[in-house]
Amino acid sequence: MSPPERLAFATRYDAIVQAGFEANPGPVLTIEGAEKKRGRPQQPPPVNLLLRLRDFKGQVLAFMSDFRVPFDNNQGERDIPHSIAFSGGEV
Asked: DSSP letters along 11-72, please?
């Protein structure tokens, strides 16, 4: 994949992640709520996913520039024999 194509995909990726943040705002704390709870406020699951996609952008898009990186992370599932995986037997 050429560098301009990678840049275009990375730009679209950023726009999609940003749209996700706009569609799934984090929790809004009030003054009373901030006094009662200690630590970081709990994030909803969509926000947690978006934070990971933003923070690990290089790893998520690594398959575009290094073809040795698999598109998915299902190597463990590929290593299990098909008969064991669907028979309910133990590995």
From this structure: HHHHHHHHHHHHHS--PPPPHHHHHH--SSPPPPHHHHHHHHHHHTHHHHTGGGT-TTS-SS
The model carries a pTM of: 0.67
Give the pLDDT confidence of 4-20 residue by residue, as tens digits.
Answer: 999 999 999 999 999 99
Q: How many domains does the chain have?
A: 1
Q: Which domain holds residue 61?
A: 3-87
What average pLDDT does range 30-48 have in this prediction?
74
DSSP for 1-25, written as a single string: --HHHHHHHHHHHHHHHHHHHHHS-
